[in-house]
């Protein structure tokens, strides 16, 4: 039976990764596969990801979809929408780090080798005119105001529960 990775080894793996070593090199040091190194770093425990559950995530998701017009910001399709974290951190659920993409554009963004038309600037919107940009800014301000109001209500409900 294979021995699992200890908490101390997990800390060492994280330090090595922060130091710039690849998953493959770290795997060789510990005698595990690069996939297992990735699982350890992402918090996978064999059954599910070990991450704190963000109870506001569905609300945040709804707001981001509404902000982006319930369509992909790249191609404009309203189908198969998902949230994309611009900085790549799944726990950084702040409005300016989230954008709505369809599954196809999301795949193209993360795997550019699968499509010859991929651009690393997928999330830029150079086609906005100044007038349209002002409309977008106004919509975002309204969205932020609505979001802040809902957060206040949720905080009151939490206080009442405690």
Can you describe what's shown?
It is extended and about 55 Å long. It is mainly alpha-helical and 162 residues long. It folds into 2 domains: 36 residues; 105 residues, no CATH class. The chain is built from 6 helices and 2 strands, in the order H-H-H-H-E-E-H-H. The protein starts with 6 loop residues before the first helix and ends with a helix.
What's this model, at a glance?
With 162 residues, the protein is mainly α.
Strand order of the largest sheet: 1-2
What is the count of β-strands? 2
β content, as a range?
5-15%
CA radius of gyration is 20 Å
Mean pLDDT value: 76
User: Would you identify the regions where 5 or more consecutive residues have pLDDT less than 50?
Assistant: 114-126
**Helix vs. strand class:** mainly alpha
Distance between the termini: 46 Å
Number of domains: 2
Q: What is the tally of helical segments? A: 6
The description of the largest β-sheet is: 2 strands, antiparallel
Global geometry: extended
SSE ordering: HHHHEEHH
Q: What percentage of residues falls in helices of 4 or more residues?
A: 40-55%
